[in-house]
């Protein structure tokens, strides 16, 4: 077990180092959270103390939704690069020559994306709530603090990040171009976001029971996606981007 943990830790360390060296990923991880923090925060702070209830509710819904995109877009871009980017850089094959197991490689890659993405999502929400409580007028601060969408958003941050990671890894293991992988990964991450948007804008009332049911369903989907992606993580597929046996067919 200790050797397995050591190999997973080595994969995580390698992945994080690779992400730091990639300018696009590093820039995206730095800029996107700031963009999705400044807009909602400015919108909330601009509300006057005597604003109508409808206007206040709309601003709060908008402001709580945009930061929820951080744990979706950031892991989408990172996971989309994780396999095809390494294949293009020529750093994937040396890893696969080591005695790393498929599960260890998958867990290491996923964890290296999940941990900073989920942490970043919570930090953005924490900073947003802190600023609104300190700088907004008391009625506006109370509206943010007691918004039913706030606890729902905190529950869905890791679940949305996990979904984006599995989608991105699956696409990255199958395509041969990093940009295409990132575009498809973002598109594939949007369905759960649409569901979250319905709750954030009260099209669906975010009651405790509904949030718990949807969170449980998304967790089950994430687990099933993990098993599905694991099937794509065989050595020949990761190196060539083709199905096992296809090379033999071409040779014959």
The main sheet comes to: none
* Helicity, as a percent range: over 70%
Proportion of β residues? under 5%
Number of domains: 1
- E-strand count: 0
Q: Helical stretch count? A: 13
- Computed Rg: 20 Å
Mean pLDDT metric: 82
Low-confidence stretches are 242-252
Shape by Cα distribution: elongated
Q: What structural class is derived from the secondary structure elements?
A: mainly alpha
| Terminus-to-terminus distance | 42 Å
Q: Spell the H/E element sequence.
A: HHHHHHHHHHHHH
Q: Any overview of this molecule?
A:
- With 252 residues, the chain is mainly alpha-helical.
- The chain has one domain (2-244).
- It has 13 helices and no strands.
- Helix 4 packs parallel to helix 8 (149-172), helix 4 (70-89) runs antiparallel to helix 9 and helix 8 (149-172) runs antiparallel to helix 9 (178-188).
- It is elongated.
- The termini are far apart.
- Residues 242-252 have low confidence and may be disordered.
Describe the structure using short key phrases:
mainly alpha, 252 residues, disordered C terminus
Detail the topology: elements first, then pairings.
Blueprint: H1 2-21, H2 23-45, H3 53-65, H4 70-89, H5 92-96, H6 102-135, H7 138-145, H8 149-172, H9 178-188, H10 190-200, H11 208-230, H12 235-240, H13 246-251
Helix pairs in contact: 1-6, 2-3, 2-4, 2-6, 4-6, 4-8, 4-9, 6-7, 6-8, 8-9, 8-10, 8-11
Short characterization:
The chain has helices spanning 2-21, 23-45, 53-65, 70-89, 92-96, 102-135, 138-145, 149-172, 178-188, 190-200, 208-230, 235-240, 246-251. By secondary structure, the chain is mainly α.
């Amino acid at each position: 077990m200790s050797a397995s943990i050591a190999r997973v830790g080595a994969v995580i360390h390698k992945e994080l180092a690779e992400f730091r060296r990639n300018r696009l990923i590093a820039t995206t991880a730095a800029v996107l959270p700031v963009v999705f923090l400044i807009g909602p925060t400015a919108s909330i702070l601009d509300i006057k103390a005597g604003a109508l209830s409808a206007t206040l509710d709309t601003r709060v819904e908008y402001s709580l939704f945009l930061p929820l995109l951080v744990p979706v877009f950031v892991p989408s871009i990172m996971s989309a690069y994780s396999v095809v980017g390494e294949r293009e850089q020529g750093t994937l094959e040396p890893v696969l020559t080591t005695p790393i197991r498929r599960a260890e490689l998958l867990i290491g890659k996923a964890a290296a994306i999940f941990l900073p993405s989920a942490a970043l999502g919570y930090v953005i929400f924490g900073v947003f709530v802190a600023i609104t409580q300190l700088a907004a007028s008391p009625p506006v601060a109370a509206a943010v603090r007691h918004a039913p969408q706030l606890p729902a958003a905190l529950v869905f941050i890791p679940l949305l990040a996990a979904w984006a990671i599995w989608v991105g890894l699956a696409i990255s293991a199958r395509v041969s171009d990093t940009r295409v992988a990132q575009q498809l990964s973002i598109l594939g991450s949007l369905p759960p976001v649409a569901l979250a948007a319905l709750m954030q804008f009260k099209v669906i009332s975010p009651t405790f029971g509904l949030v718990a049911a949807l969170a449980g369903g998304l967790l089950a989907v994430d687990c099933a996606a993990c098993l599905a992606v694991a099937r794509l993580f065989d050595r020949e597929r990761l190196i060539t981007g083709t199905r096992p046996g296809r090379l033999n067919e071409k040779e014959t």
